[in-house]
Every structure is written in structure tokens, then in C-alpha cells.
Design a protein that fits this description.
With 363 residues, the protein is of the alpha/beta class. It folds into 2 domains: 172 residues, 3-Layer(aba) Sandwich (Rossmann fold), CATH 3.40.50; 186 residues, Dehydroquinate synthase-like, alpha domain. Helices cover 44% and strands 17% of the residues. The protein has 13 helices and 11 strands. The strands form 3 sheets. The chain has a 7-stranded mixed β-sheet with strand order 1-2-9-6-5-3-4. The chain has a two-stranded antiparallel sheet with strand order 7-8.
């Protein structure tokens, strides 16, 4: 059943459209947006091999003139060098101010395409077609775009909202189990920060580590609830002036772990899972959260086959130092998002380095 979720913003409201088979109506949906006829589709070899032809055929059937740019697959390629390749393709294919970029892929492709669109000719329009669970429920919605710096994740970027987010759950059938688990980390996050009902529903499921273990009804429920949670928060705080920071639950330590392991040992979802476990333990240590609920969170993370311990050999002092370069630092103080109950969190800057060190040593 089709679901349309609206992201309400002062200037750039748009729709998150969710339905099985929607990839084949990409052209039809895009043609209703009043865009120019030239499109640059950005993808990676794996996703393009599965879905590139279908996406291009759908766009061409709606009379769009489509060129493509294929980037290497992986978080380690989310950098300025890859961004340059998008600019080169845009120049070669004469992408104009009336043109549109379409991101067909996971969070890496979506973030880079969005940033390229935000900066090419001082800003052109773009459409998100996420193909991973993580991108569907998180990265594709909200207008955060960017690339990584060697010393920190997403330090170079811009807010640039898409014209449309088109989600086809059928594409998840080709997603590797590890990538599916990575997306479940962000779904669990929404249960902790915003949607207790979603958390409870996931607890009823025996396994969360592969799509074949989850019914189509539950997948639909997860997508609808997660996307609605993200839309609710973004609509209230587009550019992270306050409330939107809660979406970074688990990301404070998670980003440091990703950065220190060169974006190659753990993926984003695995890092967020580690960060959520750490944040839960910190919240319990500070008396903000009861241990039983923290254990329920950790059991759900394990059910998704996600890590609850730090990678072997990682430098704890390096994590603490890396936290100082995090985007959430304010006046030199690291801001943590910490749970007070399932479905509710608080933002605090009263977490000392000693507490962080103690918790990380336990992990």
C-alpha cells in the first residue's frame, strides 16, 4: 500500500513516497515536480547494476534526458575526490541550473549527490532514490548533504533539501544482510528517541538481522514509522537549531569510532549501534535512565546482529580527542543525546571525559 509522508518546511516542503514497485514510476513521479528535462543520475556500480537500467528507462519514458555518473562503492570514497567526479560529469553533460541530479544508492551516494547539487552552479535541484534501509529511514530525508574529512565525518557539507524522496521497499531484497542490519541501527534509534510504539513492535520480532526474517507488513510499518519520525523532527527544526540534534543519538561516539577506524572496519550503522550502547551506559551512570531499559535497547541491537563492543585495538584516548572535532561541540563542550525513557531523550553537555573513559573501558 502506498504511503505519502510530507516533510513540512518554510520553503522547501516535499514528499517521501513509499510503495513497492515505485522505482518503475520514478519518471512519472519526477515529471510532476516541474523540473527541467536534463538529469544526471549518480550511483555506484553495485546499485547501478541492479537498478540503473530500470531507473533510467522510467525517467526516459517521462521524456527526461538522462546522463549517469558511477562512483566507487563505500564510505571511504565519500570524499572531495569523488565529489570532483560528479562535477566533471555535470560539466561534460552540460548540467544547467534548470537540471536535476538523482541519487540512486545508499547514504554515501545520497549525501554526495545532494552536496554536489547544493554547490553546482550555486545550487540545483535533486531527487533521492535510496536503495538501502539506512538511507530510506535516515540519510535521504532531511537535507543533510556532505562528504567526510580525513579527521571527521561529514565535516564538509550543506543543508539542501530534495524535491522528492522515492522509496521502493522491493530494492531491499538485493541488500546484503550486513547492510540491512546497519539500517536497523537507525530504526532502533527512532524507537529510543521518539517512537516507543515502534520499539515495542520490534521487540516482538525474533530476528532483525535480515529482510527474509521480517514480514512485508513489518517492513512497511518500520519504513512508515521511521520516515514519519524523521519528517516530524525535521519539520520542527530544519537546520538543527535545537530539537533535530536528537537524531544524532548514538552518533557522537559512533562518528569517532568510524573516523578512527578509517571508515573501513565498521560501517555507519554498526558505529551508531556502538554509540547507542555507550550513550545508554552513560545515561545509566548519570542516573538519567534505568538499567532495565538500557538492557532492552542492547538486546534489540543484538537481535539486529549489531556490535555492542568497541572494535579491537581502538584507542580510547583517540575517541575522546576525536569528540572535540564533532559538529555537536558547543563552546568547547561535547553535547550528548541521552535517553531518559524509551521514546524520550535529552541533550546534555555535562558528560565528563572521565565518565566517557570509564564507559569506553567497560566496552
Amino acid at each position: 500500500m502506498a504511503c505519502a509522508i510530507k516533510v513540512y518546511l518554510p520553503q522547501d516542503s516535499y514528499e517521501v513516497a513509499i510503495s513497492s514497485g515505485y522505482l518503475d514510476v520514478l519518471g512519472e513521479k519526477t515529471s510532476t515536480l516541474g523540473l527541467g528535462k536534463k538529469i544526471l543520475l549518480v550511483s555506484n556500480p553495485t546499485v547501478f547494476g541492479h537498478y540503473g537500467e530500470r531507473a533510467i528507462n522510467s525517467l526516459k519514458s517521462a521524456d527526461f534526458d538522462v546522463a549517469s555518473c558511477i562512483l566507487p562503492d563505500g564510505e571511504q570514497y565519500k570524499n572531495l575526490e569523488s565529489l570532483q567526479k560528479i562535477y566533471d560529469a555535470a560539466l561534460e553533460n552540460r548540467i544547467e541550473r534548470s537540471s536535476t541530479m538523482v541519487a540512486l544508492g545508499g547514504g554515501v551516494i545520497g549525501d554526495m549527490t545532494g552536496f554536489a547539487a547544493a554547490t553546482w552552479l550555486r545550487g540545483i535541484k535533486f531527487v533521492q532514490v535510496p536503495t538501502t534501509l539506512l538511507a530510506m529511514v535516515d540519510a535521504a530525508i532531511g537535507g543533510k548533504t556532505g562528504v567526510n574529512h580525513p579527521q571527521g565525518k561529514n565535516l564538509i557539507g550543506a543543508f539542501h533539501q530534495p524535491q522528492l524522496v522515492l522509496i521502493d521497499p522491493q530494492v531491499l531484497e538485493t541488500l546484503p544482510d550486513r547492510e540491512f542490519s546497519a539500517g536497523m541501527a537507525e530504526v532502533i534509534k527512532y524507537g529510543i528517541i521518539w517512537d516507543r510504539e515502534l520499539f515495542d513492535r520490534m521487540e516482538e520480532c525474533d530476528r532483525l538481522d535480515r529482510i527474509s526474517a521480517i514480514t512485508p507488513d513489518l517492513i512497511e510499518y518500520i519504513l512508515n514509522h521511521s520516515c514519519q519520525s524523521k519528517a516530524d523532527v525535521v519539520s520542527k527544526d530544519e537546520k538543527e537549531a535545537g530539537l533535530r540534534a536528537i537524531l544524532n543519538y548514538g552518533h557522537t561516539i559512533g562518528h569517532a569510532v568510524e573516523s578512527l577506524t578509517g571508515y573501513s572496519v565498521v560501517n555507519h550503522g554498526e558505529a551508531v549501534a556502538i554509540g547507542m550502547v555507550a550513550a545508554g551506559k552513560i545515561a545509566v551512570e548519570l542516573g538519567m535512565w534505568n538499567p532495565e531499559e538500557a538492557q532492552r535497547q542492547d538486546r534489540l541491537i543484538e537481535k539486529a546482529n549489531l556490535p555492542t563492543k568497541l572494535p579491537a585495538g581502538i584507542d580510547i584516548e583517540g575517541i575522546i580527542a576525536a569528540l572535540q572535532t564533532d559538529k555537536k561541540v558547543k563552546a568547547g563542550k561535547v553535547r550528548f543525546i541521552l535517553p531518559t525513557s524509551i521514546g524520550k531523550v535529552e541533550i546534555t553537555d555535562r558528560v565528563t571525559s572521565e565518565v566517557i573513559r570509564r564507559i569506553l573501558e567497560q566496552m
